[in-house]
Design brief:
CATH architecture: Roll
Oligomer: single chain
Shape: globular
Strand content: 35-45%
């Protein structure tokens, strides 16, 4: 059985209840994993920090996978995005793979 929910992680100093537009980084995203709140926060902060070739200013569409190897899909505009594979390394995240997606 899979569990799906939505999560939202506000940007510092930003009220995410107003003036949201398409691909806004404050939009809620699909969470289809059994991650704890602290894990979701740390994944979002890591992705938003733009490690490697990750486009951290794009909006998160979904987080799935396991607690030790989550996968993050981000939207970077119409028909563009990235699939990001992570792996837990102690208390930090390691960037495993970034795939650019163009539909």
């Amino acid at each position: 059985m899979s569990i799906s929910a939505y999560a939202q992680v506000p940007l510092p100093g930003r009220n995410c209840d107003q003036d949201l537009v398409q691909n806004d980084r404050c939009l809620s995203f699909l969470l289809s994993s059994e991650l704890r709140d602290a894990e979701v926060l740390s994944i979002v902060r890591f992705v938003r920090s733009s490690p490697g070739s990750v486009r951290g200013r794009c909006s998160i569409y979904s987080i799935s996978g396991t607690r030790d190897a989550p996968s993050v899909f981000i939207l970077c505009g119409d028909f563009k995005g990235q699939q990001i594979a992570l792996r837990r390394q102690g208390s930090a995240w390691l960037l495993v793979e970034v795939k650019d997606i163009v539909a």
